[in-house]
Amino acid sequence: MCGITGWVDFSRDMTREREVIDAMTETMACRGPDASGVWSDRNVALGHRRLAVIDIPGGAQPMSVSTPDGDVVMVYSGEAYNFEELREELIQAGQKFETASDTEVVLRGYLHWGDALADRLNGMYAFAIWDSRVRKLVMIRDRMGIKPFYFYRTAHGVLFGSEPKAILANPLAECVVDLNGLREMLVPVKTPSLGTRFGRACRRWCPAPLSPLTSAACVNVPIGGWSPGCTLGTGRRLLRGCARCLTTSSAVSWSPTCPNACCCLAAWTPARSRRCPHAS
Length: 280
Fold this sequence. Notes:
- The chain is of the alpha+beta class.
- It is built from 5 helices and 14 strands.
- The strands form 2 sheets. The chain has a 7-stranded antiparallel β-sheet with strand order 2-3-1-9-8-11-10, with helices on both faces. It has a 7-stranded antiparallel β-sheet with strand order 4-5-6-7-12-13-14, with helices on one face.
- Helix 2 packs across helix 3.
- The longest helix is centred in the middle third of the chain and has 12 residues, at 102-113.
- The radius of gyration is 18 Å and the shape is globular.
- It starts with a strand and ends in a 13-residue tail after the last strand.
């Protein structure tokens, strides 16, 4: 068990927000008593609390890989059960490893396969990758939703964490209990909904989606061949479309009759839209 948290804001210099991201990270000390780490750059700050299990000296996080076009950085919680097989496949493809941790396997898997990495993972995990090359945040959670992952949309980005308290440590997050949250507090049963007791703004990340976030768009795309039918509670109309033609720089208006896949457009919609070419 580890704890991850992060703050993406395309309107501010996140290198000046160290005190806030430290506070967000510290809330999850109980999830990761062995080590703590923070990384920040122009529009992003990531925090991690580690419970060391695999490669104790080499698996420190946030973990980063430098490329000629910018750093790719990840905060990761969980375990990829097939990381040894993926590691061998990546070595054969030319990837060079510096640690024996499954965290590096996931990170270098993203470098090699991109977003398609999510289709290859077998395990329980929740992680976020900041790709400085294209200024994009990718958030992924295991298909069964074993590992917790919460997010909170802001005017210019997103807050996320393994627990709501990491998000609520940020002054942008409003700590308000709505009616559904009150019901959850009073009834001793875990609800299957994606909401939290802290209202519509703070939400559970639905199992199995892959979500790229850029300054232009945030799209939640179910992967792995099935759709959990998530609703993000944004107050916006949910749009359906084709995952294989969906990009973060296009796609605002998609036909609900597209037979290939479905997605939910969450926020940060670009100015222009185009129709799904696979729609009937």
